[in-house]
């Protein structure tokens, strides 16, 4: 199994990200990406981790990698993009990683601005035999749900409905930016892009997938924050301690 961490953003939404890649900003002394790696390193099936970034922040990630334990299993992939206007988008970034690193394995995709404490090991055991599975998290607030991909679960936790950033969410169950794809399903990224799909939105990609594939939800509980702005950054500082639990 391979981990792909999406870290191709250019920052700037709040002060801490103007000159530092968002996954490298510290939450109570610990970079977000280190917290992600702490979770993925509990998965014994993981062989390698690929961090997809851009020209602006590639050197920051290279320096970070040099000081990180297990650095021989971490590869920094630079998409060579110089600005937000030129960005390839999240879906295209996954396809870039698959091609650049010649990945043909099961993959677990994680957005580099996700902070969470739920255990990924059960998800990692679950999705390879199901094909495609995503964590499902209850934000318990319809207003909060409007910012994410909202899902409806059916029998056996199959996702029977998914809507990206709905104005009137049908549920408060959402998918964080974490996606598990078995090896035989990764060609779907290329097919989607060849059909002219939205290169940036993984949520739109999941909407497209539901029309063709069975996608499973994997309910999770615990703490989770999508660090996208100053408010969510402050929330993360309040929720996550200075330790890796």
Structural overview:
- By secondary structure, the protein is α/β, with parallel strands linked by helices.
- The chain has one domain (2-130, 177-215, 223-239): Spore Coat Polysaccharide Biosynthesis Protein SpsA, Chain A.
- It is 29% helix and 24% strand.
- It contains 8 helices and 14 strands.
- It has helices at residues 32-40, 58-66, 90-100, 121-130, 142-145, 187-194, 202-210, 230-239, and strands at 2-6, 26-27, 30-31, 48-53, 74-78, 107-111, 114-116, 132-138, 149-153, 159-164, 173-175, 178-181, 216-219, 224-226.
- The strands form 3 sheets. Strands 1, 4, 5, 6, 8, 9, 10, 11, 12 and 13 form a 10-stranded mixed sheet that branches. A two-stranded antiparallel sheet has the order 2-3.
- The mean pLDDT is 93.
């Amino acid at each position: 199994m391979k981990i792909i961490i999406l870290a191709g953003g250019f920052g700037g939404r709040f002060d801490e990200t103007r000159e530092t890649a968002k996954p490298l900003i510290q939450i109570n002394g610990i970079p977000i990406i280190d917290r992600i790696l702490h979770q993925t390193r509990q998965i014994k099936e993981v062989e390698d981790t690929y961090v997809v970034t851009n020209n602006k922040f590639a050197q920051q990630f290279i320096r970070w990698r040099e000081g990180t334990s297990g650095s021989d299993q971490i590869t920094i992939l630079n998409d060579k993009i110089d600005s937000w206007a030129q960005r390839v988008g999240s879906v295209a970034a996954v396809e870039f990683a698959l091609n650049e690193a010649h990945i043909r394995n099961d993959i677990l995709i994680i957005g580099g601005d996700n902070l969470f404490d739920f255990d990924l090991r059960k998800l990692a055991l679950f999705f390879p035999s199901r094909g495609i599975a995503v964590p499902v998290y209850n934000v318990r607030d319809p207003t909060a749900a409007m910012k994410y991909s909202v899902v409806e679960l059916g029998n056996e936790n199959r996702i029977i409905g998914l809507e990206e950033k709905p104005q009137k969410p049908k549920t408060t169950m959402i998918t964080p930016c974490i996606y598990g794809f078995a090896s035989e399903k990764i060609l779907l990224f290329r097919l989607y892009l060849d059909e002219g799909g939205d290169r940036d939105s993984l949520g739109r990609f999941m909407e497209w997938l539901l029309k063709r594939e069975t996608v499973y939800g994997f309910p999770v509980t615990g703490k989770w924050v999508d660090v996208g702005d100053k408010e969510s950054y402050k929330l993360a500082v309040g929720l996550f301690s200075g330790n890796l639990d």
